[in-house]
């Protein structure tokens, strides 16, 4: 059957065709954008973080009495906890930090080169106050300078040295070579380490600016973090002991959560993940609805046109031809719908981008999703088309 | 060109068996114009359908151009219908979403003819039935007689060897019916074999040969046309 | 009425004749409505007005009175203690309260295990301004420091196992407090007074502490807190009161337009005075945001729900198209019956009544389906987007809206096909 004839037939059944086209178009638009969102979430989860996600475990906790939250008792508590963690078999290194990494916002500070405050000032740099083994836990590379070996004090006259991540150092000093020893508002630069992902800022791009000082935190009123890295494969075994070990060291604590960094990262993208999952479910429903509609439209068509199919058979159309004719009617409809749908998808993409972050459409996704759509429609039309081939050519001679 | 030997057809439903045709023997020669008459329910349409390979039969044999149609595949039967047989139905059976032109083109497309060839044949057929001016109309925009002429054009555009017509004038008034009859006679004169079911004795008389069927059994007679060929 | 029951029977009969297309129609309509309804629940609740009639009278003032040199910048999201003192000197507002959120551990005696508690550090007008219902006792007599707390109902139950605990004492972070009030069940949704720290989607606090006490005892803010000088944010009691430590939310009630105007004037002249005194280096930019615009002002509307709302609306449209398509098919196959009925002398209005019966049945079925799917959808969204889970309840307005939506959709789905079947095609049918 020729394309022009198919189109003519479709034009004759305007309402039904338009209904089907609108629906196919919207389905494709949704399908496309949810695939896009799912893809983005997947990418976010797979983006390099500079961290060993599986082997690093963090415990977020807070002492439940005010005394334990103030020095010197706090210092003592931190040391006792670190010692206990180190003694767990399978633990490679352990450290404390005022906050975890891979979080939405958190403790941060503005940071600048005191010689050049105007140009170098960066607001909202995540600031970590950590124990010396922090770097060993994260397993980062030292690119310049030397890591501080001993804990300083934030409240003392001499500011403890500042360790910067590579991209932060780059941004602060704009490619100057020797930056170790340079004075920042928080203290002198003592080392530069490889990048890791600290905080996700509201509405900002993913940057790996982080500054660290080896010193006990100012305050743990928001809780603090114990970090540990395990030998590969030991993570589960270590995690199981953590609660009881920490409770044994000090019962007056509240443990908010224990997570591997992988879980922490998942948590960070929980919203995107949830939305992508919801959209995927919605898309599945949508495809189902489209399939029902293709099915019913084809089925009805067959029922309504028994006579016509009979006539065609009498005029020499074979079963195969009738089958293909019906399928190609669906295909033409789907393809037209897909073209419209890609237009709708662009509009929807822009509308969605106003409220959530969403990458723009690329060229191959429309092809893939159109193929999915075509496949579903074919599947749904198969049965009615098969029924159509069973129409006897003798039907043609029966009067209406 | 058509030979039926001991052909029987039984319709089986849950309740009853209908012997629509019993041991029919029939020979139709090239170029004949035969009328098929008989009371309602006697099996006329059934016979016509079997001749047109629209329906299967239970026993006996059907030779078309010396070849049995028994055991042919669906594709082969379709091709046979498409190339050798033309149909005209009582209720016209035009496809209502298609224009006149598209309707006539349909069997030619099934045959896979080239566009130019199709066009030429359609023009010819339309010329013959005198509806050239209405080629872009939809069937619903034509009168019954005109629709039937379109159906005839569709049937002959493929230049079939045999034309099967089931009460082609059944839905038409006498004037229209006469026009259609004249058209069929003209086609017959061009060499096409025609087998036509009719209730109209006048029409039956105008045909070269009259085959009567009563209760599924054949009573061949040539009473109206002494010149017609006698056959068993 | 009897006539109508007859029509209902006829509808049921025609459903029985072709149950699959009807079931598919209802299914599709239910899916569309259910999904839409699930999302509408969140959308409606998240955008609902927690204090109808009052949300345009409560204002969130912000100023740039801070040692902060900038051009074209918005004022900080929160005020410092001294900012609040300066603003509170005005007696234009009918009520005013400064506040922030914190956390602590509560227990009855020191040797009991601690219960984590969300703490709101605030002033006495808070309860009146936000219409907080008090079950027992009273609020603080004034805005001075008191070792007195007000408990939420659930906290009282958790700690004491009962609500009538006014006069009892408890230990909050190792210090003794007496309970002077217990709140009734209260959940302000969304909790707009906490919107500046993006916390308006979380549940209400468990313990309410006087602002001065919170500062005295160094209860640190656990949401938004920013310093513009070298104030040590841990020393609330001392530096925190004088330095540029911005962490206070401040709400004023301005009932009339005149009050609002006066207050704006007051803020303007305050800023000018401060500028003259060198304590306001940035250009003046005062904000007085009414509560019903606060989320927009901070631009923190959760986009996912909005995005999803758009998508589910589209989905509903698709389902409507689809269902009417299905219904059209169904009606066309019943066309003969329609023609027959008309031939038997049914007039327009009788056919319309028949259609109404069809619509009603369709509404009932699709409503049931929509409720089921809607419930499943809400549960799913709670699991996948847990931060919105407080906003998943159905109230009378929502249910009514759903019923109306189901009715309208059923009507739309039935209207076109039945019109076509009953009026349009008689002529065409005879032609065929
Ligand atoms: N598909 C079928 N199933 C069962 N019985 C059938 C079927 N088609 C025809 N018959 C029966 O076969 C017999 C012959 O029918 P047929 O249609 O050939 O009659 P006819 O001679 O064409 O009658 P009419 O002049 O009324 O068109 C009738 O008794 C009819 O009831
Ligand atoms: Mg007949």
UniProtKB/TrEMBL annotation, chain A:
<dbReference type="InterPro" id="IPR050250">
    <property type="entry name" value="Macrolide_Exporter_MacB"/>
</dbReference>
<feature type="transmembrane region" description="Helical">
    <location>
        <begin position="273"/>
        <end position="295"/>
    </location>
</feature>
<keyword id="KW-0472">Membrane</keyword>
<protein>
    <submittedName>
        <fullName>ABC transporter permease</fullName>
    </submittedName>
</protein>
<keyword id="KW-0812">Transmembrane</keyword>
<dbReference type="Pfam" id="PF02687">
    <property type="entry name" value="FtsX"/>
</dbReference>
<comment type="similarity">
    <text>Belongs to the ABC-4 integral membrane protein family.</text>
</comment>
<feature type="transmembrane region" description="Helical">
    <location>
        <begin position="322"/>
        <end position="348"/>
    </location>
</feature>
<dbReference type="Pfam" id="PF12704">
    <property type="entry name" value="MacB_PCD"/>
</dbReference>
<keyword id="KW-1003">Cell membrane</keyword>
<feature type="domain" description="ABC3 transporter permease C-terminal">
    <location>
        <begin position="281"/>
        <end position="393"/>
    </location>
</feature>
<feature type="transmembrane region" description="Helical">
    <location>
        <begin position="363"/>
        <end position="383"/>
    </location>
</feature>
<feature type="domain" description="MacB-like periplasmic core">
    <location>
        <begin position="25"/>
        <end position="244"/>
    </location>
</feature>
<dbReference type="InterPro" id="IPR025857">
    <property type="entry name" value="MacB_PCD"/>
</dbReference>
<dbReference type="InterPro" id="IPR003838">
    <property type="entry name" value="ABC3_permease_C"/>
</dbReference>
UniProtKB/TrEMBL annotation, chain B:
<keyword id="KW-0813">Transport</keyword>
<keyword id="KW-0067">ATP-binding</keyword>
<feature type="domain" description="ABC transporter">
    <location>
        <begin position="2"/>
        <end position="231"/>
    </location>
</feature>
<dbReference type="Pfam" id="PF00005">
    <property type="entry name" value="ABC_tran"/>
</dbReference>
<dbReference type="InterPro" id="IPR017871">
    <property type="entry name" value="ABC_transporter-like_CS"/>
</dbReference>
<dbReference type="InterPro" id="IPR017911">
    <property type="entry name" value="MacB-like_ATP-bd"/>
</dbReference>
<dbReference type="InterPro" id="IPR015854">
    <property type="entry name" value="ABC_transpr_LolD-like"/>
</dbReference>
<dbReference type="InterPro" id="IPR003593">
    <property type="entry name" value="AAA+_ATPase"/>
</dbReference>
<protein>
    <submittedName>
        <fullName>ABC transporter ATP-binding protein</fullName>
    </submittedName>
</protein>
<dbReference type="GO" id="GO:0005524">
    <property type="term" value="F:ATP binding"/>
</dbReference>
<dbReference type="InterPro" id="IPR003439">
    <property type="entry name" value="ABC_transporter-like_ATP-bd"/>
</dbReference>
<keyword id="KW-0547">Nucleotide-binding</keyword>
<dbReference type="InterPro" id="IPR027417">
    <property type="entry name" value="P-loop_NTPase"/>
</dbReference>
From TrEMBL, chain C:
<keyword id="KW-1133">Transmembrane helix</keyword>
<keyword id="KW-0812">Transmembrane</keyword>
<dbReference type="InterPro" id="IPR025857">
    <property type="entry name" value="MacB_PCD"/>
</dbReference>
<dbReference type="Pfam" id="PF12704">
    <property type="entry name" value="MacB_PCD"/>
</dbReference>
<feature type="domain" description="MacB-like periplasmic core">
    <location>
        <begin position="23"/>
        <end position="259"/>
    </location>
</feature>
<keyword id="KW-1003">Cell membrane</keyword>
<feature type="transmembrane region" description="Helical">
    <location>
        <begin position="20"/>
        <end position="44"/>
    </location>
</feature>
<feature type="domain" description="ABC3 transporter permease C-terminal">
    <location>
        <begin position="308"/>
        <end position="423"/>
    </location>
</feature>
<dbReference type="InterPro" id="IPR003838">
    <property type="entry name" value="ABC3_permease_C"/>
</dbReference>
<feature type="transmembrane region" description="Helical">
    <location>
        <begin position="396"/>
        <end position="416"/>
    </location>
</feature>
<keyword id="KW-0472">Membrane</keyword>
<feature type="transmembrane region" description="Helical">
    <location>
        <begin position="307"/>
        <end position="332"/>
    </location>
</feature>
<dbReference type="Pfam" id="PF02687">
    <property type="entry name" value="FtsX"/>
</dbReference>
<feature type="transmembrane region" description="Helical">
    <location>
        <begin position="353"/>
        <end position="376"/>
    </location>
</feature>
<protein>
    <recommendedName>
        <fullName>ABC transporter permease</fullName>
    </recommendedName>
</protein>
């Amino acid at each position: 059957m020729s394309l022009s004839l198919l189109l003519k037939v479709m034009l004759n059944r305007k309402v039904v065709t338009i209904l089907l086209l609108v629906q196919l178009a919207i389905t494709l638009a949704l399908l496309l954008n949810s695939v896009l969102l799912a893809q983005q979430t997947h990418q976010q989860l797979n983006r390099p973080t500079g961290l060993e996600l599986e082997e690093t475990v963090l415990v977020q906790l807070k002492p439940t009495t005010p005394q334990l939250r103030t020095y010197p008792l706090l210092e003592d508590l931190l040391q006792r906890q670190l010692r206990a963690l180190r003694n767990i078999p399978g633990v490679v290194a352990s450290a404390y930090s005022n906050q975890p990494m891979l979080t939405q916002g958190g403790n941060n500070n503005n940071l600048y080169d005191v010689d050049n405050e105007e140009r170098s000032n960066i607001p909202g740099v995540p600031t970590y106050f950590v124990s010396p083994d922090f770097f060993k836990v994260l397993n980062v590379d030292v690119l310049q300078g030397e890591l501080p070996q001993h804990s300083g004090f934030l409240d003392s006259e001499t500011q403890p040295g500042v360790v910067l991540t590579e991209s932060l150092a780059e941004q602060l000093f704009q490619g100057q070579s020797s930056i170790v020893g340079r004075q920042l508002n928080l203290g002198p630069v003592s080392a530069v380490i490889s990048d890791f992902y600290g905080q996700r800022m509201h509405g900002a791009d993913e940057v790996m600016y982080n500054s660290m000082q080896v010193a006990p935190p100012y305050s743990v009123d928001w809780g603090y973090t114990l970090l540990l890295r395990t030998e590969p494969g030991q993570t589960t075994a270590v995690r199981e002991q953590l609660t009881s070990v920490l409770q044994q060291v000090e019962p007056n604590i509240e443990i908010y959560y224990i997570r591997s960094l992988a879980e922490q990262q998942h948590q960070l993208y929980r919203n995107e993940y949830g939305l992508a999952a919801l959209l995927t479910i919605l898309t599945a429903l949508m495809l189902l609805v489209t399939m029902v509609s293709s099915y019913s439209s084809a089925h009805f068509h067959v029922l309504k046109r028994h006579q016509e199919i009979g006539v065609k058979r009498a005029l020499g159309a074979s079963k195969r031809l009738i089958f293909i004719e019906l399928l190609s009617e669906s295909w033409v409809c789907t393809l037209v719908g897909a073209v419209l749908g890609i237009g709708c998808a662009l509009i929807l993409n822009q509308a969605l981008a106003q409220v959530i972050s969403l990458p723009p459409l690329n060229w191959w996704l429309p092809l893939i999703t159109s193929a999915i759509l075509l496949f579903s429609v074919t599947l749904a039309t198969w049965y009615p088309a098969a029924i159509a081939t069973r129409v006897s050519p003798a039907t043609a001679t029966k009067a209406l | 060109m058509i030979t039926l030997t001991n052909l029987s057809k039984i319709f089986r439903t849950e309740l009853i068996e209908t012997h629509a045709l019993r041991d029919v023997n029939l020979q139709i020669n090239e170029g004949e114009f035969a009328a098929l008459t008989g009371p309602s329910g006697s099996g006329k349409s059934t016979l016509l359908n079997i001749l047109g390979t629209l329906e299967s039969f239970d026993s006996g044999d059907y030779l078309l151009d010396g070849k049995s149609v028994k055991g042919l595949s669906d594709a082969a039967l379709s091709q046979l219908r498409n190339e050798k047989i033309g149909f005209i139905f009582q209720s016209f059976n035009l496809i209502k979403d298609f224009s006149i032109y598209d309707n006539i083109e349909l069997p030619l497309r099934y045959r896979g003819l080239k566009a130019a060839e199709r066009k030429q044949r359609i023009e010819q057929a339309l010329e013959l039935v005198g509806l050239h001016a209405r080629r872009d109309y939809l069937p619903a925009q034509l009168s019954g007689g005109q629709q039937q002429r379109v159906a005839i054009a569709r049937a002959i555009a493929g230049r079939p060897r045999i034309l099967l017509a089931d009460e082609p004038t059944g839905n038409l008034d006498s004037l229209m019916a006469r026009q259609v009859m004249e058209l069929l006679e003209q086609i017959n004169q061009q060499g096409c074999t025609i087998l036509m079911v009719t209730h109209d004795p006048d029409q039956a008389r105008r045909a070269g040969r009259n085959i009567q069927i009563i209760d599924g059994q054949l009573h061949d007679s040539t009473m109206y046309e002494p010149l017609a060929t006698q056959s068993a | 009425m009897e006539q109508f029951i007859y029509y209902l029977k006829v509808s049921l009969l025609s459903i029985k004749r072709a149950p699959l297309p009807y079931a598919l129609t209802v299914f599709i309509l239910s899916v569309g409505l259910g999904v839409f309804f699930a999302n509408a629940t969140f959308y409606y609740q998240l955008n609902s007005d927690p204090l109808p009639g009052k949300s345009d009278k409560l204002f969130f003032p912000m100023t740039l009175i801070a040692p902060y040199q900038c051009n074209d910048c918005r004022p900080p999201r929160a005020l410092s203690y001294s900012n609040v003192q300066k603003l509170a000197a005005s007696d234009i507002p009918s009520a005013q309260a400064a506040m922030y959120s914190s956390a602590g551990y509560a227990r009855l005696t020191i040797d009991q295990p601690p219960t984590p508690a969300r703490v709101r550090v605030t002033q006495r007008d808070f309860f009146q301004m936000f219409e907080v219902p008090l079950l027992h006792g009273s609020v603080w007599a004034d805005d001075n420091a008191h070792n007195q707390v007000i408990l939420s109902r659930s906290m009282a139950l958790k700690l004491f196992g009962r609500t009538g605990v006014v006069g009892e004492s408890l230990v909050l972070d190792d210090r003794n407090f007496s309970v002077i009030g217990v709140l009734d069940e209260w959940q302000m949704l969304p909790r707009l007074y906490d919107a500046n720290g993006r916390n308006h989607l979380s549940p209400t606090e468990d313990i309410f502490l006087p602002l001065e006490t919170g500062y005295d005892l160094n209860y640190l803010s656990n949401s938004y807190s920013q310093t513009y000088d070298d104030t040590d944010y841990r020393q609330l009691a001392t530096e925190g009161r004088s330095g540029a430590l911005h962490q206070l939310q401040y709400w004023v009630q301005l009932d009339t337009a005149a009050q609002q105007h006066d207050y704006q004037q007051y803020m303007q002249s305050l800023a000018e005075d401060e500028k003259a005194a060198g304590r306001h280096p940035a250009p003046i930019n005062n904000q007085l945001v009414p509560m019903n615009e606060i989320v927009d002002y901070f631009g923190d509307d959760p986009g996912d729900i909005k995005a999803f709302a758009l998508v589910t609306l589209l989905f509903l449209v698709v389902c409507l198209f689809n269902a009417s398509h299905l219904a059209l098919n169904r009606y066309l196959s019943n066309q003969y019956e329609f023609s027959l009925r008309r031939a038997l002398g049914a007039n327009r209005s009788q056919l319309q009544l028949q259609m109404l019966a069809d619509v009603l049945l369709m509404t009932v079925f699709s409503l049931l389906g929509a409720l089921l799917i809607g419930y499943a959808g809400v549960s799913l969204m709670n699991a996948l987007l847990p931060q919105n889970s407080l906003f998943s309840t159905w109230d009378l307005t929502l249910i009514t809206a759903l019923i109306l939506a189901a009715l309208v959709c059923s009507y739309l789905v039935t209207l076109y096909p039945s019109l076509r079947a009953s009026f349009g095609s008689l002529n065409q049918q005879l032609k065929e």
